[in-house]
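Exercise 3.2. Students should predict the tertiary structure of the chain below and write it as structure tokens, then compare their answer with the key that follows.

Predict this chain's 3D structure.
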Amino acid sequence: MAFHGIVVVAMAKPSIFRAERSLSQDLYADHTIYRSGASTRRRDLVFVVNPRGANGRTGKEWKKLLPYLRSRLGTDCNLLPVRASCGEMIRLFHCGLKVMYLSNTNSLSACKICESLTSGPSHAIDITREAIREGADAVIAVGGDGTLHEVVNGFFWGGKPVSDHDSRGTHTTALGLIPLGTGSDFARTFGWKNDPREAIERIAKGLRSRIDVGVISGESGESHYFINVADIHLSAKAGYYASRYKRFGNLCYVIGALQAFLQHHNQDLKMKVDGGDWEVYSRVTALCIGNAKFFGGGMKITPNADPLNGNFEVVILQDFKWYDFIFKLHKLYNGTHLLVNNVTSRSVRSIEVEEIDGSSGIYVQSDGEYLGFLPRKFCTLSAAIDMIC
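Answer key:
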């Protein structure tokens, strides 16, 4: 099968498999558990890896992780090495999707683990869409928030979930995460350590929660999706500049913020919340729309956000000066900035944001990815994706 000029591996079409309720009583107790032993279908796990992430560290760490992944998931899935023909190996090589291990094909509960190394921007989106179309049990993002962002966008196509384009509608592909990138801010909301082995344990257990996703629309009408935090004005501009300094690790966010401040002017913005009347907010420094809590390398910018509650937390900073960030930076990291003057927080399901004078471009980004300028509308899609938690 070809997709965007890329030959892809056809995975087995899935059948419905049994779901049981987990008895977990933790903060995220609304899980569904899928046990490979109880299933009568083959499990196809696709790992989408950005080998250049974190200045190449992601690729190196992934290679080190493979033996543990094979041993851990191999035990659960009864895996045996693949013995593919030369022609099959060439086909796998060209599409970027490599079958690493496959269980005994005589077993109804066989399991296939595939890796796909991304070759450039938006490649992870294409890989994810094709994996979902072909019935993958889960697509796991291996990298930072940028890779996760692309994989999440791959769950949607033409303004609706990829799975909705399948008239049979018998299967749900889950989203997974192995944090190996620069920021890994989304993982912090769930309290996950930046530990890839711990992430593999989550994947092996197969606990799932339905999480919310944000959707952004602009004048072009094209939809863009985010899972963590979208932001406007100074913080978005800082993120735009920070992307140039990823070689410095989390320090890139500080460098980006300093550079953004050199050209920054607070702006009056108008906003419409949940379809209500337009409201004017004067001298806005930054506006953050949180589906989750953290961004910018650990700043707890929207501390009350919860990707399971169907709402965004919107935090608005007004009339901040450069020295405010210096003296109040620690509050941004520990989430106590909501007590500071000129900081507003509210819970919303949708918000539209526009400039008032339209004289200058106000930056917009989501999950650290630059999207352009205002105007934009942000809406939450409640329980949009199954996530391995």
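Discussion points: The chain has a mean pLDDT of 81. Residues 167 and 253 are 44 Å apart (CA to CA).
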